[in-house]
Design goal:
Distance between the termini: 48 Å
CATH architecture of the largest domain: 2-Layer Sandwich
Structural class: alpha+beta
Number of strands: 9
CATH class of the largest domain: Alpha Beta
Radius of gyration: 21 Å
Largest sheet: 6 strands, antiparallel
Order of helices and strands: HEHHEEHHEEEHHHEEEH
Amino acid sequence: MENRKSAKEAPYFMIQSVDRTLSILQSFIEERRPLGVSEVARKLQLNKSVVHRLMLTLLSHGYLEQLKNTDKYMVGPKAFELGSVYTNSTNLVDEGKKILIELVDRVGFTAHLAILEKDSVLYMVNVEPDHLKYLFGAVGQRRPVYNTALGKCLTAWLPEEQVAKVLEHCSFEKTTEHTIGSFEEFRKELERVRQLGFAVDNEESSYGVRCFAAPVRSKDGDVIAAISTSGYGVAEEKMNELGFTVKSLASQLSRRIGYFDGP
C-alpha cells in the first residue's frame, strides 16, 4: 500500500510527506468533487491512516474543508487563494483593467472585476469615470452574492449543491422591495442568467442603481471572475444594450487570458 513511488523512481530531492500532500490536492483537481479519506488512499495507493493525517493537516491550514455532517472533504479557501495568485500572474488583473477602461469609455459608468471568495463577492479591480469616483466601492470590498449582478454571475455556472453551500447562511435580507427573497427565487434567477449570458441587479441592492455583469472564463472554461458596470438612473430601454455590452467585453477578457470558445 506504501509503494506509490518507489525510492528508485523518486528524485533524490523529493520530500516524501510533501509529495504525498501535493498528490492529495492533485486528487481533488482530477476528481473535481468531494472525496473521503478512503477514496484518496485507494487512488494514491497509500495507507489510510497516513492519508487521514495529511488531510487533517491540509484542513487545519484551510486547503481542505470538511463537508457538514459527512466524512467527505472538498478544496478549501486557501487553495483558492493560492490559485488566485497564479490567476493574477497570468494577467487576469492586468488585462481586466484594460477591459474595464474600455467598458467605462463605452457606457460612462463605474466598472468592476470581482471573484467569488467563500460566500461573498470580492472586488479585485474598479475603474471609475471622473464624475463617479468613490461612489461604488473600492478594491478589497466584499458584497453579498444574492442581491448583486456579480454574485449571480459568479454562481450561475456552479453545480447547484455548491450554490447551496455558498448561500447556506444567507438570510436573503430585503435591501429593497426588488431584492430576491429565497433560495428558490435565486435559483430561478440563475437560470435566466445562464440563458442570457449576463446578470442584472435591477435595483435589488440599492434604489435607483442598476448593475450588469457577465462571466469571465479560464482557459478550461470555468467561470473564475466576472466584470460589471453600475450606474444610477439607467433607463429600462437601455438595460439589454448594457447587458450585451458587458457580455461582449467579458468574452474578450476571457479570450485574452486563454479561453477559446470556438469560431
